[in-house]
Amino acid sequence: MPHIPPLFSVFGTNSLTNKHSRNRDRGPARNMSIKFEDVGKVYPNGYEGLKHVNCEIEQGEFVAIIGLSGAGKSTLIRTINRMHDVTTGTLTVDGVDVMSLSGKALRRFRRKIGMIFQSFNLITRTTVIRNVLTAFVPDMPWYRSAFGIYTKEEKMKALECLDKVGIVDKAFVRADQLSGGQQQRVALARTLAQNPQIILADEPVAALDPVTAKTVMDDFTRINKDMNITILINIHHVDLALQYCQRVIGIRAGEIVYDGPAAEVNDAVLKQIYEGGEKEE
Ligand SMILES: Nc1ncnc2c1ncn2[C@@H]1O[C@H](COP(=O)(O)OP(=O)(O)OP(=O)(O)O)[C@@H](O)[C@H]1O
Ligand SMILES: [Mg+2]
Asked: 74 CB contacts (<8 Å, ≥6 apart)?
């Protein structure tokens, strides 16, 4: 895969791409396909969150998951990084049954999967760059994490990730001084710093105004295209889903009722997802 330069470099030609970061900028090195085979999820209270889910998502896809509130969108994406356990069927990521993972192997696996939430989950009382640097904490020796000591390479990488989402100029601003859209971009930069192969985004634009939501969707699109990172996004804005994503998965009451190109989502499909019309075979 060709080397992808940083997108909005304010530091001039390649000043942020030293030989270390260059290697990591090549995007995912391997294919981490996600495969649900007859997956079911029953919550401890007996509620069936997912029923007979079958689908396969290839490396580099940009997929929107849509459906009514309570349909199971969050449940679906959270099974992928084992935030939720599946109870029946098999979910494999990169050929590995995620339910077989535990301890160190599970932690290593989770590092390859970034997670973005509606609420950004930033440490608001510290700077933007420190927020991004937290992505390195799991791989650091305890004394460095205890004292917040980061290497030059880690700092360069953090700046590079902020550069990719167009807010490197905010690196030394306190996170709580940023707008919602900018905070979501910090969260995205922090996720990129972990070098994920997959990003799971749970309603990342739900708290944003329509214009800002589009800028964040533009960031996702660029990251998806330039870095070949798989992106799964739960989203209530159907118009944004259809505009930005190639593939749409429609979920209703824990079941996939549509899985196909965004271009083929019409009124009948939306009715089936949101109003419970006849399931298409
Ligand atoms: N921990 C839990 N225990 C029991 N039921 C749960 C739990 N978490 C979620 N559910 C139920 O599972 C169903 C799916 O929830 P989920 O959060 O996946 O929906 P969603 O499609 O993401 O909705 P929203 O659009 O509101 O975020 C809901 O009916 C919810 O009440
Ligand atoms: Mg949800």
From this structure: 202, 234
Q: pLDDT tens across 206-233, in order?
A: 999 999 999 999 999 999 999 999 999 9
Ligand 1 site-directed mutation target among 48, 75, 118, most atoms within 8 Å of CB: 75
Highest-pLDDT range among 20-34, 134-148, 245-259: 245-259
Residue with the smallest CA separation from ligand 1 atom 17 is: 74
